[in-house]
Design goal:
Order of helices and strands: HEHHE
Distance between the termini: 49 Å
Largest sheet: 2 strands, parallel
Structural class: mainly alpha
Strand order of the largest sheet: 1-2
Number of helices: 3
Helix content: 40-55%
Number of domains: 1
Length: 88
């Protein structure tokens, strides 16, 4: 289980980096990392994170590449739309 990072005087980047590393270690390398889920989880761990979602997503993606995550789903801004199929 991931634990919330304490709100301290440390820089947001250092705390956020630590949260991302913790998140990636908990998921293993063979996972498909959902950016939307990862951003949500990091925000839960670091409530004071001042990065925008896209900035946080970029940071998570860089960490994922360095840590050998095999697949990343860039679904952060994916809009769910119904699919309409013609029935004949």
């Amino acid at each position: 289980m991931l634990e919330r990072m304490p709100a301290t005087a440390t820089t947001t980047t250092t705390t956020t980096d630590s949260a991302i590393e913790t998140l990636l270690r908990s998921g293993g390398r063979r996972q498909v990392l959902s950016m939307a889920d990862a951003v949500r989880k990091v925000r839960k761990l670091v409530p004071g994170c001042e990065l925008r979602d896209d900035e946080l997503g970029d940071l998570i993606a860089r960490h994922a590449m360095v840590n050998g995550v095999s697949a990343v789903a860039f679904d952060l801004h994916a809009k769910r739309r119904p699919i309409e199929l013609a029935v004949r």
